[in-house]
Design brief:
The structure is a homodimer of 308-residue chains. Chain A is an alpha/beta fold and 308 residues long. Chain A is 38% helix and 24% strand. Chains A and B meet through helix 8, strand 13, helix 10 and helix 12 of A and helix 8, strand 13, helix 10 and helix 12 of B.
Chain lengths: 308, 308
């Protein structure tokens, strides 16, 4: 089954203590789409400027990612410039230029309105809600959000939450949204706001999943080096939604396996700048780290069992 | 098979934002022994003063914990007074009085010298080494340490590491001991210093296990409230070593299951001050949370499988 992702396609400039990238392909929809494409067909709905380069368009078209919904408008592509601290959990935004993204009014094509899986990357909850309204009978609607919308668009966000099967949110944002410092209380409180599943992203500490069936805790894949954490959350969401779309149903088992695949994809993307590692990644590597992950977390140290 | 634990028995005064405890039973050996006793016979080797109260002695004797090695000396029992921050990962020591613990010279009884499982709680590495030298042919020797010894007794600690099957150490101490900021690098570096298994304790984020067989990652049990984190690490070690002693062999499967039982015991002890929760704890509760833990971390959401 196919997936529609609505969000940003951007050019990122990233600085870290050990190097950087300049005007590299970024944006939530880019990371999501390339990750999800390992599992299922993906349509990208986003906007770029006249400066968007053919080689970046080919990243999508080479993978048969549908970009009929990648609108081109007069002006420049969304640009973000950030610098990571030595502790990579912290970063400062040096410059943010929304450019053509400012007037983004995502309109789905007729076939996209009939999609089964929809991911609303981090855009305003008003726009996210407007997109949900265009989709006829989705199987799974998932969304991401951020502190800015929690602080400045809470009524719209609250309205959106009632429409969601899955909300992905990081730990600090979960505390902000719920008003609860304790993460277990926070996750359960957000569950009551509407989403059927809440996925709290904890960076290097992994993901806590809250659903009516209970909790699921997964560590992150232990990495010896993180080069660039940008896009890890969207790559996680891409791997997860991709796996769900491939299986077509949302059972607890499928959901948990999807969370593990999402974690695996995210663990790869941070190994290089921009989407570089994702673009080299083979299915064999995904499969290998997935098996490694089962081994890493298997408290009975039993042999690997096929998830299918 | 039986366990010998060598370490402190103390009186703790603890302050938190939501209450406290005054002159409550504490000390690494106390937490360890009561936790380990859920699984196997335990002997405590420690020293207390003349002020050590009969009701605290009965905590051990009521559980058939062997305290022939609990020496009584003239003077006062080791006392620690600490205050936890709102963020319970941080605490300040307000007062520390070693008292009779200062002259602690642990000498094992003849039958203790033949023990199979030895846990060296956080005392000076010189003393830890001296205790190891008394044991004839142990199956498993495990030890804990802290930043003070890493900074001030590194040669003795290095000598000890070569004698260890298991080292338990928290994340910051693992960084300090190895000189590596990245925890995966730190764990692997410490493994090369001698211990067959390194267990890096990450508080609310669980445990990372490093061994020749690879890595094992377990989250902590997600709690809605933590009342008093004191003794969590020693309770973890007690549950782990207790499980290992019950099974009598140190395979990767037994080790991983032991780490989960240790995590379960530790998740209970922080629910109340001092050893209070541990003293009320039933085997049924341990078993229930163990099953809950398997469910929490099972990426295939399969039914619970007996660890035996």
């Amino acid at each position: 089954m196919s997936i529609v992702v609505v969000g940003s396609v951007a050019y990122d400039t990233v600085e870290t203590d050990h190097g950087g990238a300049k005007d590299a392909l970024g944006g939530a929809a880019s990371y999501f789409a390339v990750a999800a494409r390992f599992f299922a067909p993906v349509s990208v709905v986003a906007v770029v400027g006249r400066d968007f380069r053919p080689e970046h368009e080919r990243i999508f078209t080479d993978r048969n990612i549908d970009i009929r919904g990648l609108e081109r408008r007069d002006g420049e592509t969304f640009r973000w410039h950030g610098r990571y601290h030595e502790d990579m959990n912290r970063r400062d935004t040096i410059k943010l230029a929304l450019n053509v993204f400012e007037g983004f009014q995502p309109k789905l094509l007729p076939d996209q309105e009939r999609c089964d899986f929809l991911f609303l990357a981090n855009i305003s909850p008003e726009l996210q809600y407007w997109v949900v309204s265009q989709v006829r009978s989705p199987k799974v609607v998932a969304a991401d959000t951020m502190d800015f919308w929690i602080n400045n668009a809470r009524p719209a966000l609250t309205k959106l939450l009632g429409k969601l099967d899955i909300l992905t949110i990081n730990d600090e944002e979960a505390r902000l949204l719920s008003g609860e410092q304790n993460l277990v209380k926070a996750g359960r409180a957000i569950l009551k706001m509407g989403p059927k599943t809440v996925l709290v992203k904890r960076g290097e500490y992994g993901v806590l999943q809250f659903s009516r069936e209970g909790m699921f805790a997964v560590p992150a894949w232990p990495l010896e080096e993180v080069i660039d954490p940008t896009g890890a959350g969207d790559t996680f969401a891409g791997g997860l939604m991709g796996f769900l779309a491939r299986h077509g149903r949302l059972t607890e088992t499928v959901l948990r396996t999807g969370v593990v695949y999402g974690t695996v994809l995210a663990s790869y993307v941070v190994e290089k700048f921009s989407l570089d590692r994702l673009l080299q990644l083979t299915w064999e590597e995904v499969d290998q780290r997935y098996r490694g992950f089962i081994e890493l977390t298997d408290s009975h140290h039993s042999r690997w069992i096929s998830p299918s």
